[in-house]
Amino acid sequence: MTLILSIETSCDETSVAIIENGKKIMANVIASQVQSHIRFGGVVPEVASRHHVDQITQIIDLAMEEANVSMDDIDAFAVTQGPGLVGALLTGITAAKTLAFVHQKPLIATNHLAGHIYASQLQQPLFFPLMSLIVSGGHTELVYMENHLDFKVIGETQDDAVGEAYDKVGRLIGLPYPAGKHLDNLAQKGKDMYDIPRAMIHEDNLHFSFSGMKSAVMNLVHNANQRGETINHEDLATSFQLAVIDVLTTKIVKALDAFSDTQQFVLAGGVAANKGLREALTARLNASYPDIELIIPPLRLCGDNAAMIGAVAYHQYQNQEFVDITINANPGLALTE
Asked: Distance between CA atoms of 165 and 282, rounded to whole angstroms?
């Protein structure tokens, strides 16, 4: 049995987990900072860092208590090295380095994006080759994997991430932070009444672009305001969400056709919690690719959490991919590094 204590502080959640053999959650404690950032309409890096400093020790203690283990039981410590906010990352890294040094246990540096993919491993085994779509506030990437920890980015956004576009469109129509989930809720109630462009949907590649879609919504709202017209927010949310889903699912189909040996498809990242996307992707893959297993993690594992870090770190532990205490944060860390 391998027990890994993992720490995730890449953005605005302070999380510590105890994971057994990379798949069983003994504890997964998450302290959200949403209430502190609402008034700013987004995450303020300095505020996030201060919260992590205030909470990290308490969250470690709570995770140990919930798992009912001692530091002697822990085999290794894992921490998110990047990508993320540098100050936030440094808090978690400092805590993990301290624990590894004091208890003389191995230290594992993990990639936040890899963690999102491996969140699904906490529900069921991963089989290869697999493909994953990572959709979050900072990333939109199609990833092909032939084995554990073997990441090949086959498509990615050329500008805004899909989660960022959701937040900005939501903010434009007055939705509170984080706007993505509120926009998803609105989209369930409206009709497709507005023409939103599907950027790059017909291009012969697997890349994405959401900046133009966001700008189209901004121009639509601005022009309506200039003319004194009223925009139906529910219909606008529906039209925007359907455009996004159309682009994402079309690119996924192209990718699955190009990599026809894919056995599993994993939807990963914070935007994987989007109800419209979950339903549309399930219907599309069931109809067109019944032999490919679709894995979508439960809502509690879609957002940032330390359990997913412990899941990927287990395979790094098996490979003895350890780092020393000179490790530093890497806010721009790529999945393939």
From this structure: 23
113-131 pLDDT, tens per residue? 999 999 999 999 999 999 9
Phi/psi for 4 (5° steps) reads -120, 130
Over 80: is that where the pLDDT of 263 sits?
yes
Is residue 32 predicted with pLDDT exceeding 90? no
Residue 174 region by backbone torsions, left for phi larger than 0, else alpha for psi between -120 and 50, else beta: left
Mean pLDDT score, 228-247: 94
pLDDT per position as a tens digit, 320-334: 999 999 999 999 999
Torsion, Cα 94 100 62 299, to 10 degrees, reads 70
Amino acid (one-letter) located at 249: T
Is the backbone peptide bond immediately before 129 cis, with ω within 30 degrees of 0?
yes
pLDDT over 70 percentage in the chain:
95
Distance CA 188, CA 278 (A): 13
Distance of alpha carbon 46 from alpha carbon 48, whole angstroms: 5
Residue whose C-alpha is closest to residue 162's, from 257, 48, 276: 276
Q: Which of 6, 3, 24 is nearest to 310 (CA)?
A: 6
